[in-house]
Amino acid sequence: MVSLSRRAFAFGLPASSAATASVLSSGRLLAQEQSSHPNVFPPSAQFKIGRFTITALVDGYADMPFTYFPGHPAKETKDEASAMSAAKPGGIRFMFNQYLIDDGERLILIDTGPAGTLGQSGKLPAALAAIGVRPESIGAIIITHTHQDHIGGLVAGGLQNYPHSELYVDRRDIVYWTDPAKRASAPDYVQTSFALSADMVRLYPKLQAIDGERQISRGVSTVDLTGHTPGHIGVRIEDGGQSLIMASDMLFPVVHPSATDVFFLFEQDRPAAKAMRDKFYPRAAEEKALIAASHMPFPGLGRIVSESGTLRWLPAEWAYQD
Ligand SMILES: [Zn+2]
Questions:
Q1: Of 99, 159, 203, 216, whose Cβ has the fewest other Cβ atoms within 10 Å?
Q2: So what's the architecture of 24-315 in CATH?
Q3: Bridge partner residues of 209 (DSSP)
Q4: Mean per-residue pLDDT over the chain, rounded
Q5: Taking 90 as the threshold, does the pLDDT of residue 82 lie above it?
């Protein structure tokens, strides 16, 4: 079980006027810059996987209507959410979690959030600033797929917001989400993802198309999780006998992992999404894999466990880590 540092859980702490720079590599987490909202400290959670320091950050959240989960009647989804105390008046709350990996040499960011295009979002820049990280100092970004809630921050405001970053995106998503014919026949609710994908390709000439599995740096590799989108990938972080798989949109709150035939509205190829969940969930349960998931309650860490043949999400326990 991963240990999560107590001092890393910085919910709601007021930014101190005596705040100083953070030192990611030593695990200290202090505010560097005063937020424009001095009483709101963006949440972050820092933990170790071997030599890697990983910081979970959040761009915001959105409440997804109960009707957004095809394969399951909306009323049942609402009842299940209510039974888990996860029901909000507007639906099921999706967090937009991002993960920043410090490998001692460079900072690697996984995903960039919707950046204001969905729900209450756009807080990633403030969350990075609060731990003393400027966008210019991020050396690489891995995009798990090019839905708007994962790439919005790359191009918010029509700008290249991470000017010194290498950018890794799966080739199948680049091809799909920049195809004019696919865009023309796609429903309204995915049009923003098509538009942002076009911006991403235009604004990041150094974008590198990857093919499923690739080592990004020693101990950090992408994993093919095609289904949710054609080029949906995860990121495996491994060192010193510890590992974490950032599984992006392999599972959503409330409806997963107890079923694999419940979908999210944005999934264009439901049989493919189901096939990967059928494969991934039992394997993750068997391996007791530590998982980071984009939309699970912050910081999105947990495991899939099997109880009497039913799979459920077990959040990672919080613990001291020194
Ligand atoms: Zn997503």
A1: 159
A2: 4-Layer Sandwich (3.60)
A3: 169
A4: 88
A5: yes
What is the reported pLDDT for 76?
95
Size of the chain in residues: 322
Could you tell me the distance, in angstroms and rounded to a whole number, from the CA of residue 19 to the centre of ligand 1? 33
Cα-to-centroid distance, 57 and ligand 1 (Å)? 15
| CA 317 – ligand 1 centroid, Å | 24
Instruction: Assess contact for 4 and 299: CB atoms under 8 A.
Output: yes
- What is the Å distance from ligand 1's center to 294 Cα? 6
Q: What is the mean pLDDT of residues 251-262?
A: 97
Contacts of 66 (CB under 8 A, 6+ apart): 74, 75, 77, 78, 81, 91, 92
Is-contact 131 157, C-beta < 8 A?
no
Residue type present at position 200:
M
Q: Is the pLDDT of residue 35 over 70?
A: no
Q: What is the pTM of this model?
A: 0.88
Distance 21 CA to ligand 1 centre (A): 31
Distance 118 CA to ligand 1 centre (A): 11
Q: Give CA–CA dist 77/66, Å, rounded.
A: 6
48 alpha-carbon distance from chain centroid: 17
